[in-house]
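Reopening this one. Same input as before:
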Amino acid sequence: MRRGMKKLFIIANWKSYKTSLEAKEWLQELTNLQFPVSSEKEVVVCVPFTLLPILKEYTDEATLSVKIGAEDVSPFEEGADTGEVNAEQVKEFADYAIIGHSERRKYFNEDDALLTQKVQMALQFQLTPIFCVQDENTFIPEGVTLVAYEPIFAIGSGTPDTPENAEKVIKTIKLKNPSVQYVLYGGSVKPENINTFTTSPSIDGALVGGASLEAEKFVALIKNA
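Same output, byte for byte:
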């Protein structure tokens, strides 16, 4: 049995997938599948910047019980920073922003100093950072309350961490970072295994990549969590 009434987060990360048409089809399918609503589960869909207005408009008009997140945010305020999308711009459409995902760290060489700037910008404009860490020793900037533990070997590999090890790592993250309220597990999460993670005492939900791209799978994930 899960811990009392503690909030559980199910967060989708679409990565660099879906056109506007595909996003609308996904949202319509989610609605048709009678998306389960629960006060104990916070469902967040993090999408590329191009899709933020589409999700905002749809969820407002359809009163769909999901929150919207961006997959990144600029480390700068508004200004002459070509190609950047700043936190004030993101806040028009979203309440969350993924920061420090392993793919950003690997392919864009994002370090602790840059990630701290991004967290500061997000917090300044009332965006909740979903801060990704690779292990219990990863630096977490001040002000972060929501963390996702995503071991490198489990990202997109189809081979998740064990619930036992994930529980151990996440418990340690919380002990080492008292200001962190929630820690999720991310890495090859599927409808078939999500419950083995979310029923662990220290794990507060899941950050879901590939399995979130199909609405049917995502609904199954939410139901099984």
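So the earlier flakiness isn't reproducible anymore. For the record, The domain at 8-224 is CATH 3.20.20.70 (TIM Barrel).
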